[in-house]
Records
---
Amino acid sequence: MTPILESDRPLSVLIVDDVPDQADSLAAVLNIHGYGTRSAHNGEDALEAVAASPPDVVFLDIGMPGMDGCELARRLREASAWKRPLMVAVSGQSEEADRTRTAEAGIDLHLAKPANPAVLVGVLERFRRVISC
């Protein structure tokens, strides 16, 4: 029997969006492609989810009430006890100023909503190849 290498395991993905239908739709697409997903609908729940089981990737909305996506990203970056996930903003806020703000918050990539599912899967596949090296 061939051992399963760390690089062969599917990436874990946390989807953070205050609109449950959008989070659920993205989760369904990613599940079809073999990714393990969890969802959170606000920043506090996302922090708890990451503390319980750090994901490899976080897809996050920026324009959430309460703790917005940029503040969530800052808190995740500051949390030294957790592994640092790749963070991808998937947001309707996609002007140049929004992209600058997400970069300053430590978000790795900023995609405009509605994001093409093939692009999101491609991002995950590229990331999986990078971490498997």
---
Amino acid sequence: MEQEESAPSDKDTSNTAAVEIPFKELLLRMGRLQQKDNDMAKLAAAIEEVPAKVAAQQALIDGLKHEMEDSKAKGRQYLVEKKSVETELAAVEGQIKKHAGELGAIKTNEAYKALLSEIDTLKVKQDAMESRILEIFDLIEVCKKTETTAAATFEQKKKVVEQQIRLCDEEKKHLEAKLAEEQAARDALAKDVPEEAMERYAKLRSRKGGVALAPLHGTSCGGCQMSLTPGFINNLLKMKDFVYCERCQRIMYIP
């Protein structure tokens, strides 16, 4: 059996003397109060979830923006590489032209062949650089198309996401208004409940996962489902004082 702090016995009538409403009505009111508190807890939890929903939507925008900016960055990198290769190509072409002009002044076959070999090596580099420049042109075009597509997608999805964020804000306002209504209704219910009874209720509710009162379901406790003895049920039917389930220690009432 679950061990709890000692609950008032069935003979404890200290609270009954302070009750100005019939005890049955007090229990039913406390049951409705419990439902209000649980409803309010759900509303409060839903309100707390809204910022996370907004953050998730904002993350979508940030992701799309990053994709668009990544395409721009790659395009800029290829432009820098293109300029570098073109500069190097110009230097190679200058060397080829210079060496071609030197051929006529060569005196030996061996030196002539060596210079031709150097020119051939430079021409291989020239071909590779020209091919790379053509590749970079293609890559830049791909980046431009990707950037254009990403920008269009970004603007399109941004509008959808911003609409979702507005809906989240509206949802939050609606939930807050509903919570305020529930709070007012809760305060009205609690108004005539004696302070000592409210203390018992609050203490049990904090220890029992938001369920301080359990209704009678047939012959069982609506909180822990334990079968109750006829004597226990008979005592509950008297509606004279708080009766606690012998297993879960919740306050029992007949709905």
---
Amino acid sequence: MYRKNINALVNAWNTGNFEELDQYMTEETLRHAPTSIYPTVTGLEGVKAHISDFRTAYPDLLITVDEELYLDGRSVIRWTFTGTNTGPGEYGPTSKYVHVSGASIAHYEDDKIKEEYVYFDTADFYTQLGLIEMSKAATG
């Protein structure tokens, strides 16, 4: 049942088309992520703006769903994000390609996404962008 919600969200990330989000997310939705600039995004319009900002910074952005688990009132999705940072965003364009895996847990209310928790390795993400350097000890 919740697959349509996830498909609408992934489609919005991949295309920038937000039409379906109104149908599959609540107006009060919250999105929690482990980043400094967007630790929590509030409201459906906030989520749309967040996605637009990322699509500006990564015009070739692609989210693929690697694994899906749907439960009563929630879903767990393992995903991969790829893209090249050629546009403005949290920092100037780095022209670096990134490949990041992560997971999202979505909670539903009245069959709409009410809250999403996003998890990924931010150190790996910022290292791929060339914004931080991981020591050899930390990377094995």
---
Amino acid sequence: MGTVAKGCLGAVLGLIAIVIIGVMIASCAGGSKDQGGKSAPSSSSSAKQEQARTYADADINVLIREAKTNAAAANKNYKGKDVKIVGGILENIDSDLSYITIKGTDRNYSLLHVRCSIKSKNKELQDAVLKLQKGQAVTVYGRITDVGDVMGYYLDLDKVETAK
């Protein structure tokens, strides 16, 4: 074996040793823990947290009227709040299932609506939306993320059901 071959063999063995040491250090450090040292919550625990939410009842016509009358006050009152919006009519279902929109029944505010974003990982919610039709009366549950005087409300959708 020549000196060049011995040098290459030594370099390869050295590289393998470095990789093995790195793997050992990573496994001792507990790679599945977050920076706070606590295990990350499982998806089932986050689903339980969503189910444990308390939703305040809200009539869609009242919400829309408040946004049109004073969007700043409506934003302060509702942004970040978990709500159950009743009285809505399904206006649009996005073809990619990324959102739906619902409107109220008050013709004075016909341009304003609630845009409900659907999380792409929530297959159960997507399946529920696939069973709906435009024009149906629906009740939506979620957290309001924004309010505007032109478009209305933005909501992260947790649940949708036909109105009873």
